[in-house]
Amino acid sequence: MNFQFRLRLSIMMFLEYFIWSSWYVTMGPYLGGTLNFTPQQIGFAYNSTALAAILSPFFVGMIADRFFSTEKILGVLHIAGGALLFGAAQAKSFATFYPLLIGHTLCYMPTLALTNSISFAQMKDPGKEFPSIRVLGTISWIVAGLTVGTVLGTKATTTPMPFQMAGIVSLLMGLYCFTLPHTPPKSTGKVTARDVLGLDALQLMKEKSFAIFVAAAFLICVPLTFYFSFTPTFLGDCGVTNIPGKMTMGQMSEIFFMLVMPLFFARLGVKWMLIAGMGAWAARYLLFIQGYSAGTVWPLYLGLILHGICYDFFFVTAYIYVDKKAPETIRAKAQGFIAFVTLGAGMFVGATLSGIVVEQYSFPNVEPTRFAQVQDASTLVAGNVVRWETNGKSSFGKVESVTASENSASIEVYKKQEAGFVASGEKIVQPVKSLGKPMPLWEKIWLLPALGALAILALFAFMFRYQDTSAKPAA
Questions:
Q1: Do 415 and 468 belong together in one domain?
Q2: Same domain, 17 and 137
Q3: Residue 434's CATH number
C-alpha cells in the first residue's frame, strides 16, 4: 500500500474512534449527576451500543454491502449520527435521550465494520498491513480521552459538551468519508439472516468444549460490562479527577499487552490465556473494592491498567481460538457469531443488569454509608440527592432549587421506611457547605461481578478442554 492510502486510512481510523471515546466514558457521570437519571436508566443507555451491535450486521451484511459503495454509506451514516448526537446533547429526559442515543449507535456501530472493509479493499496483505492502520483507533481513543478530560475539565462529566464534541467530529468524519477511495458493493447474491448472524457456525457447538467456550464467553460478558457502565461514576465518587484521561491508562496497557501477547500465548496456550483474561476481570473489581474501602487511589489505577490483560487475553484469544476451530468455509461466519454472542448479546444483558444492580444498592433503596462533600453551589442541580446531619444523625433529601447568591439549597426531606426512603413533603433550606452527595454501596456492587467472574472462570477451567493440533499439545 502506498503512503497516500496509508495516511488517508489512518486518518479515517483516528476520526472513527475519536467519536466513540469522546462521549462514552463521560456519559454515566453526566446522566446521573446532572440529568438525575436513575442507575437503571444509565444501564439502559450503555446497552445501546450492544443493541446496535446486534442489529448492525443486518445493515452491513444485507444492505450496505450490496447496494451502496462503502465510502458513501460511511459518509451518510456519520453525518446522520452526528446530528443525532447534537440532539442527545439537548435532551433532558430519559424518554427523549435514549431514543436519540439508540439512533446514533445504530448509525455508528455499522461503521466499525465498514471502516475495516474499506481498509481491506485497499490492501494486498491485510494480515500484515491492517494492524498498523487499526492501531490508530486505539491511539485515537487515548487522545480523545486526554483531550476531553484536559480541555473540558469538570465540564466533561457535568455538561453535554462531550456529546457536542463527538457530534462535530462525526460530521467532519462524514464529509471526509466522501473523499476516501471508491469501494463498490462487493456482493450481489442473496443473503439471509442466518448468513448475517453466522448461524452456520452453530455446527461447531456439537463439540462439547466449543459449546462450553461459547457459554463462558457469553456469561463472562455480563460481569465485565459493569466496568464499562459504571467505572466513570465510581471514580468520580472516589474523588478521581480528569476521569476520561485517567481511564485511557486502560487503552495504553491494551497496546502494551497486544505487543507482548505472542510471548504469553506461546507459553500459556488458549485455555490459560482465556483463564488469565477472566481472572483479570475479577482482580480488577477486587482492586476497586480495596481502593474504595481504604480510600487510596493506587488500587483503582492498577485496576484500570489491567484492561490490557482483561481485553487482549480474553477477546483476542477468543478470536484466535475460533479461527483455529472453524473450518475455512465458515471461519468468517464463526467470527461474526462469537462477536454477536459477546459484544452483542452478552454486553446487552450485562449493561442492563448492571443498572438494575447499582440501583438496588443506591438511595432511596438503601441507606448510603459514604458521601462526597459538596464544594459549592455550582456542583448542585435540582433533583440531586443530598445528605446532611440532624442531631448527629444522617438526613436525606432531594434538591428542589439552589440559591447560589446565598449558597443554600431548598430540599424536600425523605423519611426512612422499611422498603427504603420516601418523600415526606417536608421542605427545608440547608447551607450548601453542610451537604454531601450519597454514594451507592460500591463495595457490594463490585463484589457481585467479581464473584460472578470467578465462578465462570472456575467452571470454565474445570470443563473446557483444548488440544492445539496445529502446534504444541495441551493448552
A1: no
A2: yes
A3: 2.30.30.430
DSSP of 238-262: TT-SSHHHHHHHHHHHHHHHHHHHH
Structural domain boundaries enclosing 136: 1-192
Cβ density class 291-301: b for 16+ within 10 Å, e for less: bbeeeeeebbb
Residue 331 Cα distances to 24, 116, 117, angstroms: 31, 17, 16
Give the list of residues 6+ apart from residue 80 with CB closer than 8 angstroms, or none: 107, 174
Beta strands 393-403; 385-390: pairing state = antiparallel
Task: Say if residues 12 and 140 touch (Cβ distance below 8 Å).
Answer: no
- Of 85, 88, 89, 81, the C-alpha closest to 112 is 81
Residue 417: beta bridge partners? Answer: 420
Residues 22 and 170 in one domain: yes
- Report the C-alpha gap between 235 and 242 in whole angstroms: 10
Is 349 in a helix, a strand, or coil?
Answer: helix
Is 88 buried (19+), middle (13-18) or exposed (0-12) by CB count in 10 A? buried
Same domain, 28 and 97: yes
Cell reading at 70: 462503502
- Nearest Cα to Cα of residue 439 among 262, 294, 253, 230: 230
Phi/psi at 300 (5° precision): -65, -45
pLDDT tens across the length of the chain (475 residues): 677 888 999 999 999 999 999 999 999 999 999 999 999 999 999 999 999 988 877 766 566 656 778 889 899 999 999 999 999 999 999 999 999 999 999 999 988 888 887 887 787 776 678 778 888 998 999 999 999 999 999 899 999 999 999 999 999 999 999 999 887 776 555 666 666 555 666 778 888 888 999 999 999 999 999 999 999 999 999 989 999 999 999 999 988 988 888 888 888 888 999 999 999 999 999 999 999 999 999 999 999 999 989 988 998 888 888 878 877 777 667 777 888 889 889 999 999 999 999 999 999 999 999 998 888 888 889 999 999 998 889 999 999 999 988 899 999 999 998 878 999 999 999 999 999 999 999 999 999 999 999 999 999 999 998 765 444 444 3
Could you tell me which of 373, 370, 435, 438 has the C-alpha nearest to residue 407?
A: 435
155, 177, 192 - which closes a domain: 192
Q: What does the alpha-carbon distance between residue 320 and residue 266 come to, in Å, rounded to a whole number? A: 13
Asked if residues 299 and 290 have their Cβ atoms less than 8 Å apart, the reply is yes
The CATH number of whichever domain residue 99 belongs to comes to 1.20.1250.20
Quick one: 188 and 254 in the same domain?
A: no
Closest CA to 39 of 50, 48, 47, 28: 28
257 lies in the same domain as 212: yes
Contact predicate 319/189, CB 8 Å: no
Structural domains in the chain (count)? 3
Same domain flag for 457 and 434:
no
